[in-house]
């Protein structure tokens, strides 16, 4: 039964990845948290497994999504090259910090983050017309911040990079495609970090590789690779205002589900 859940979760995450330029972690993490808790994973490591498995699955989802967006010329590779070094450094730092945090604290960070971005999108707060992407050091710092917080909440960075690039007046369809490309270095670095941090922990479930649960990874990856191109096609067919509302409502739903699990 869990495999069916993983496949369904992967299919939904793949559509979100293509549609919104996210890795799907905003949905994968809370759902895996509930599934792993029901499977009686060690309570102190439930969210660590959800974060690690989410990062590993985004490797596959982001590749499928970015290929579809690249074909449409919607990936700004110059931005990808400028921001990736900071993202890699930030993700490594974030994974290291995450290994020392409790599950409850990680949930609280995830909830606050989800609500903040949702409100920003729904209020349609617009940047100054003159605002542009920062220069080299600014891009490095921005990438570092995106990497750190992506590790905290197990995402491919889209829920941070999309608002950041939108705030810098990049066209939204290009933002979504570029964000999909940025998900790969975040996911690769994060997955390696969660695997390494979990290897020395005893008493973990069978079929685990560090803090990555391989059956969940397989189900999510297979389904998301199939559905990510569908989401990418939808992204280029929908108007910008509707994309923003879909993004914001998704964050409110997953944040609320995570909030309810605290009580």
Walk me through this protein's architecture.
By secondary structure, the chain is mainly α. It has one domain. The protein has helices at 2-20, 25-38, 46-71, 77-98, 103-122, 136-153, 158-167, 172-198, 214-235, 240-260, and strands spanning 208-209, 212-213. Strands 1-2 form a two-stranded antiparallel sheet. The longest helix is centred in the last third of the chain and has 27 residues, at 172-198. The mean pLDDT is 81.
Number of strands: 2
Can you list the strand order of the major beta sheet?
1-2
Poorly predicted sequence stretches spanning 5 or more consecutive residues = none
Q: Beta-strand percentage?
A: under 5%
Please write the string of helix (H) and strand (E) elements.
Answer: HHHHHHHHEEHH
Report the end-to-end length measured between terminal Cα atoms.
26 Å
Annotation field: number of helices:
10
Structural class: mainly alpha
Helix content: over 70%
Radius of gyration, in angstroms, nearest whole number: 17 Å
């Amino acid at each position: 039964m869990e495999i069916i859940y993983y496949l369904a979760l992967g299919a939904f995450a793949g559509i979100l990845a293509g549609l919104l330029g996210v890795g799907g972690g905003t949905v994968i993490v809370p759902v895996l948290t509930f599934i792993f808790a029901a499977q009686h994973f060690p309570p102190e490591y439930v969210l660590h497994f959800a974060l690690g498995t989410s990062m590993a699955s985004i490797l596959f989802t982001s590749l499928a999504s970015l290929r579809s967006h690249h074909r449409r010329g919607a990936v700004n590779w110059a931005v990808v090259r400028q921001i990736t070094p900071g993202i890699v450094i930030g993700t490594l730092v974030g994974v290291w910090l995450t290994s020392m945090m409790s599950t409850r604290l990680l949930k609280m960070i995830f909830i606050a983050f989800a609500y903040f971005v949702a409100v920003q999108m729904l209020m349609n707060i617009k940047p100054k017309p003159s605002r542009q992407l920062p220069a080299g050091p600014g891009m490095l710092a921005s990438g570092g911040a995106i990497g750190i917080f992506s590790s905290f909440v197990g995402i491919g960075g889209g829920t941070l990079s999309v608002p950041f690039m939108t705030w810098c007046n990049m066209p939204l369809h290009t933002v979504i495609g570029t964000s999909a490309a940025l998900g790969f270095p975040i996911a690769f670095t994060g997955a390696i970090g969660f695997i390494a941090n979990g290897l020395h922990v005893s008493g973990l479930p069978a079929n685990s590789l560090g803090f990555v649960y391989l059956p969940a990874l397989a189900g999510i990856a297979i389904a998301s690779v199939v559905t990510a191109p569908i989401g990418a096609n939808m992204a280029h067919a929908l108007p910008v205002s509707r994309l923003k509302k879909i993004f914001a409502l998704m964050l409110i739903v997953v944040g609320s589900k995570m909030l309810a699990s605290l009580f």
